[in-house]
Every structure is written in structure tokens, then in C-alpha cells.
Design a protein that fits this description.
heterodimer, A: 587 residues, mainly alpha, B: 3 helices
Chain lengths: 587, 85
């Protein structure tokens, strides 16, 4: 059977599964639609959160990012997981006790202010829409590379699938499909990782394989060997730090706070039955996420090793140390066809030289005339893994299904966050307070349908700034949403004026700092300073500014609150109430 | 739940959270970033210790921390009679 047919069968089978689950999970009322009637088991919610969280980028791009950044990629590994500690200890249990449907609803009630609620809605929708564009693109990319359909058709198929289960099932349908999608994606990620680890180190567990010796009998540890190979070819050592320490610190912190403040993640903790379950469910979520996030560094390092060893077969500079182009393995040629790998024989010797021109001073004396691997797309590191490891076609098909599952599950969670903010916060909470439950349910279905169309449109016509916006999503969540919720729980003194001023300060400063370097509203021509370390304030990367925005939010909120009146007694009572799981039992 | 025990419950909760977050900070920002260079001089299996904390160890500790927190809070709830049925 051809690979393409097999891939269509495997992906088709997963779609049938998702639709089947959707049919069985129709939402009957708004509680079903918004929070799955608060009946999701904490372990299953952890799984759903894992799929919700791990996006197309986590599945396809992260290992490639690690492969090329080495140690510096730790900011993503720690940043995207450490946020769950903040979520579990500072937000989730209290929001679950509050027991309502949306994040902005909490902010509105705690700060007794519709303005605060609408500011939160704006932050929420901006963060989620920017994030969902990436997912739509991810679906299109996977489809077009693996199924032989166009990018556009891929996005439309993805939209239809999400439409079916999100519109009918709401949170209930999304939760159940996310559980299935987690299983698909983690299986698809682990199988090639296990085989690559076995192949290189003889150790089946990738997390241990990364710390093992090479299986070639040399007795050298994999990471040491990788460092040596890279340094010999002029690259920086894999385990060495290249980014400045201040950026590593601030970027990690921004990603952590941003993770804890992203509404589509917080929302998942409204669906469990109790406060106790909200705490443990965050732990389960991180277990399921860490399975992939601790495997990814192994996949990254091993894929880089495979790539280097394929090209540099002997000693650096020796006449036959580099592979002849005529003898490259089939995967090399098949990825060249996609344009993701590109080779140019600059010195015309028929062999491939892959090195860092700035780092390797002696290159000319070898007769090398420049780095000949003119393009190595990072995404290849995961997508080509099964072929490099010589795995059967069904594994390649599975990786495609896994990538689609990762993109669909995250897209659905984001779309649901957008739709609930529109139907519950804007319509029911502000514009049409008198609609009944069934009418609200109808509007929430229309809202999610509309959100899917907008996301699809933006996926098909991505604005030029698509690559920048994920940083924006994290920056916004870190600088606006996280501090507002945290102060709402841990302070009884912060009032409506403080919260609104704080959110606007966090949001405004983060946006301005990003826009100065990336261009106002991401129009490149309007950038006021070149986007590089020499021009950054204190050398701080715009992506890492969320931390500063969050600090400004805290300071402004406390300062404004301290010179204005304390919140009314009923709000202080509300804060007391959400701090304990239940009021004291009747003795 | 009286005013007094409510305050005591909250005080103990904060103490637990602060304790957990100190560990959270030390393993990631401390071991994984600030003192990663000196730690990298120490081999840990085939890893350099600092690199291991940054790409593996801190993630495992994060998971452990959440379950530790969740478990301790469960006990605290029982002690103060505020646990859910």
C-alpha cells in the first residue's frame, strides 16, 4: 500500500473516531456547553488539558527548535511546564471554587466592574485569536505535506471537523475528543522517539537515552559527542548557553506566567467536580505534558546527531570526510523535493559540507567554499524522524495523524474560549442580560461557528505578522490576565480602579515594547528601532517583556488601590469564600 | 468556620505555597539558569548536571511539587473540616 493511501486511512480513522465521540457528547444546556457540567474526572481532565495545551508547534516544531538551539531551548521546556505550578497553586483551585463559566466573569465579579470584565474579554480574545491562527496554519501544513492536498483544502477539512464537535458538543464534546487526541498524539510522538533512541544509544527510553553512551561501541556519551561534532564544524556547543542570562530568565518567566494566564488552559479547570480535583488535575495535566516535553529534548539532540553524522561521515577536513551527494539516503532527497532541505554544491566537489562559516576559520584550507546546506527547516526534525530511523510507513502515517490531533485539539480549546467570552461575557453579561439558558446556548453555538470561520479565514490569509503573534499571546496573558486573577484571590484590598489601571498598564507597556521593535500593529515599516540586542532596553528581548508587564501591572494595581477606597464588604466576603473549598461543616 | 481558624487556614496555605514556589524557583531559575555553568562541571550520567536540570530535572520536580501541594492541601482541608464530600 502506498504511503499516501495509508496516511489517508490512518488520519481518516482518527476523524471517524472524533466525529463518533462528538455525536455521543451533544451539549444539552449552557453548563454542558461551557464546563461539561463540571463532571470531568481529574485524570481525564489532565489528559484533555495536555492535548489542549500541546499545539501544532509543540508537536511539529519544538524538537526542531531544540535541535538547533540546544541549551537555549530550555526556556521553552521550563517555561511551558513551570506555569502549571503557578496555575495549580495560585489560580485553578480558587477559580474552581468561584464556580462560574469564564475567566473574564471572575474578573468582572471580583472587581465589581463591567469595564474590568470587558478589558479581560479584549485581552482574552486577542490572545486566543492570535494563537489559533498558528493552529490553522499547522493543520494546513501537515495536510499539504503528507496527504497531497493543498494547504487551503487542509485548513477547510480541519475547520469542518472542529465545527462538528465544537458546535454540537461545546466543552463536553471538546473534552472527550481532546482525551482521544491526547492518546493519538502521545503515541505518535513516542514511537519514533523510542526507535531513534534505540538506534543511537541502545536505550529504549528517550529520556535516558539522551544521557547514555553511543551504541557504536565508542563508549562516548551522546551529548559529549554532539558537542564535539558541532564545535569541530564551527557551531556553538549543544549544551552551551548562547542567549544572555537576563533574556533566559525573563523569557522563561514570561512563558511561565503566560502559560498560567492563558484562558483556554484555565478554563479546563472549571470542568472538574471539586476544588480538590482542580489541584490534582493540574498535576495530572503536567504529567501528560511532561511525557512529551521530556521526550522532545532527546528527539531534538538525536535528530541533530543523525543529521550531522549523515553529512560529516569522517574527520573534518579530510578529503573523503563528507558524504557524496550521489550517496545520500532517500529521506534526504525526498525532503529536498519539499524545499525544506536545500543543498548547493558551492565548491563543486560533489560532496556536502555543512558547517558554520563564522566559526570554522580553517574551512578554506580544506577547499570548502561556504556552507552548502543552505536550508535546513527545523520542522523536518520531527517529520523526517521515522524515515531517518528506517521505520515502517504506518509510523509515518501515525506522525501525520498526531500532528493533526495536536493542532485540532488546541484549536478547539481556543475557539471555545473565544466563543464563551462572546456569548457569556459580552452577550449575556452585558448586551442581552435577559436571554434564557436555551437562547444563550444557541448564541454560544453561533459564536463558535463564527469563531471557526474567522480563524479559518485568518489561517488562509495569514497576516504578515503570524510568526510574531504567539509571543504576543503569551505577553498579553502574562501582563494582563495572570496578575488580575492572582490579585483578585490573594488581596482583598485591590479594587476595581486598581485592577483596571493595572491591566491597562501591563497590556499597554507590553504592546508598546513589542510594537517599537516589531512595528506598530506589526507593520514592519513602522518599527521605531531595529529589533536586535543593541537596541533592546537593558538588552531585553520583546518576547521576554511579559514579565516586566506583569510586574508593572502588580505595582500600578496596588498603588492605585491604596489611594482609592477599599472594595465593598460583599466583595471581601467573596474573596474569603473562594479561599476555602467549602464553608465549615455543620457539626 | 470561625474568623480565627479561617485566618489560620489561609496562613498555612500561603506558607505551603511559598515553600513549594521556592523549590520551583531554585530548580528552574537557580539550577537550570543562574548557576548552570558551575553545575555543568558535574557529570550526571551522560548529562551535565546543569543541563539536566534545565531540560529534564526541573520538569520532573514541577510534577512532584504539584502532587505534593495537592496532597498537603487535602490534609489541611481535613484538619480544618473544610474538605469536600
Amino acid at each position: 500500500m502506498s504511503l499516501q493511501l495509508l496516511t489517508i486511512l490512518v488520519v481518516g480513522a482518527t476523524f471517524v473516531l472524533y466525529i463518533y465521540i462528538a455525536i455521543r457528547s451533544k451539549a444539552k444546556d449552557t453548563s454542558d456547553f461551557y464546563v461539561a457540567s463540571k463532571g470531568v474526572h481529574p485524570v481525564l481532565n489532565g489528559m484533555a488539558t495536555g492535548a489542549d495545551w500541546m499545539s501544532a508547534a509543540s508537536f511539529i516544531s519544538m524538537a526542531g527548535l531544540i535541535a538547533f538551539l540546544g541549551y537555549d531551548a530550555s526556556v521553552y521546556l521550563m517555561g511551558w511546564t513551570g506555569g502549571y505550578c503557578l496555575l495549580a497553586m495560585l489560580l485553578a483551585p480558587y477559580l474552581r471554587k468561584f464556580g462560574k463559566f469564564t475567566v473574564s466573569e471572575f474578573i468582572g465579579e471580583r472587581y465589581y466592574s463591567n469595564t474590568a470584565r470587558m478589558v479581560a474579554v479584549v485581552c482574552l480574545i486577542t490572545a486566543s485569536v492570535t494563537y489559533v491562527i498558528g493552529q490553522m496554519k499547522g493543520i494546513g501544513v501537515v495536510f499539504s505535506r503528507s496527504l497531497g492536498v493543498s494547504f487551503e483544502v487542509g485548513i477547510v477539512i480541519g475547520m469542518v471537523i472542529v465545527f462538528v464537535y465544537a458546535v454540537f458538543g461545546g466543552m463536553k464534546g471538546v473534552t472527550n475528543t481532546q482525551i482521544a487526541q491526547y492518546c493519538v498524539l502521545i503515541f505518535a510522538y513516542s514511537v519514533p522517539a523510542i526507535f531513534i533512541s534505540l538506534h543511537l544509544t541502545g536505550m529504549p527510553i528517550p529520556q535516558l537515552g539522551l544521557g547514555s553512551t553511543m551504541a557504536d561501541g565508542s563508549g562516548i556519551h551522546l551529548l559529549d559527542k554532539l558537542d564535539t561534532i558541532l564545535v569541530d564544524l564551527g557551531f556553538a556547543a549543544y549544551t552551551a548557553q548562547k542567549m544572555s542570562t537576563i533574556n533566559v530568565l525573563f523569557l522563561t518567566m514570561s512563558l511561565m506566567i503566560g502559560t498560567a494566564g492563558l484562558p483556554h488552559v484555565i478554563m479546563r479547570f472549571f470542568t472538574v467536580p471539586s476544588v480538590k480535583d482542580a489541584r490534582s488535575s493540574a498535576g495530572w495535566a503536567l504529567v501528560f505534558i511532561a511525557i512529551l516535553y521530556t521526550t522532545a529534548p532527546a528527539v531534538g539532540a538525536m535528530a541533530r546527531m543523525n543529521l550531522m553524522q549523515t553529512i560529516q561521515t569522517g574527520a573534518v577536513g579530510s578529503p573523503d570526510g563528507n558524504i557524496e551527494y550521489a550517496k545520500v539516503p532517500p529521506w534526504f532527497k525526498s525532503w529536498e523535493k519539499t524545499g525544506l532541505l536545500k543543498f548547493e554544491d558551492k565548491n563543486g566537489d560533489g560532496r556536502i559540507q555543512y558547517y558554520d562559516e563564522k566559526g570554522l576559520k580553517t574551512a578554506e584550507s580544506f577547499g570548502w567554499k561556504g556552507n552548502e546546506m543552505v536550508k535546513v527547516d527545523r520542522d523536518i526534525m520531527v517529520l523526517a524522524n521515522p524515515e531517518i530511523a528506517g521505520l515502517p510507513n504506518w509510523v509515518i502515517a501515525l506522525v501525520t495523524a498526531g500532528g493533526i490531533a495536536a493542532a485540532l485539539s488546541t484549536a478547539a480549546g481556543l475557539l471555545l474560549a473565544i466563543a464563551t467570552a462572546i456569548s457569556h461575557d459580552v452577550l449575556k453579561g452585558w448586551l442581552m442580560p435577559n436571554i434564557n439558558d436555551q437562547q444563550e446556548l444557541k448564541y454560544s453555538r453561533i459564536a463558535i461557528g463564527g469563531a471557526i470561520l474567522v480563524a479559518g479565514y485568518l489561517g488562509l490569509n495569514p497576516p504578515g505578522f503570524a510568526a510574531q503573534v504567539v509571543a504576543l499571546a503569551f505577553g498579553l496573558a502574562a501582563a494582563s490576565i495572570f496578575p488580575a486573577i492572582m490579585m483578585g484571590i490573594f488581596s482583598k484590598r485591590v479594587n476595581d480602579k486598581g485592577a483596571v489601571a493595572g491591566m491597562l498598564a501591563g497590556l499597554g507597556s507590553t504592546l508598546v515594547y513589542i510594537f517599537i521593535y516589531k512595528g506598530w500593529f506589526f507593520f514592519k515599516s513602522t518599527a521605531m528601532l531595529p529589533d536586535n540586542v543593541d537596541n533592546w532596553l537593558f538588552g531585553l528581548n520583546p518576547q521576554a517583556f511579559g514579565t516586566v508587564g506583569a510586574i508593572l501591572n502588580f505595582i500600578v494595581a496596588y498603588a492605585v488601590s491604596s489611594v482609592t477606597e477599599a472594595p465593598p464588604q460583599r466583595i471581601q466576603d467573596l474573596v474569603e469564600e473562594i479561599r476555602v473549598p467549602i464553608a465549615a461543616k455543620v457539626k | 468556620m470561625g474568623e480565627k481558624s479561617r485566618e489560620e487556614y489561609w496562613r498555612r496555605n500561603i506558607k505551603l505555597v511559598v515553600g513549594c514556589l521556592i523549590v520551583w524557583f531554585v530548580v528552574s531559575f537557580g539550577f537550570g539558569i543562574l548557576i548552570v555553568h558551575p553545575l555543568n562541571a558535574i557529570p550526571f550520567g551522560g548529562y551535565k548536571l546543569g543541563f539536566w536540570f534545565a531540560q529534564q530535572g526541573s520538569l520532573y520536580i514541577f510534577v512532584g511539587l504539584i502532587f505534593f501541594y495537592s496532597n498537603r492541601m487535602g490534609k489541611l482541608d481535613k484538619e480544618f473540616g473544610v474538605e469536600e464530600e
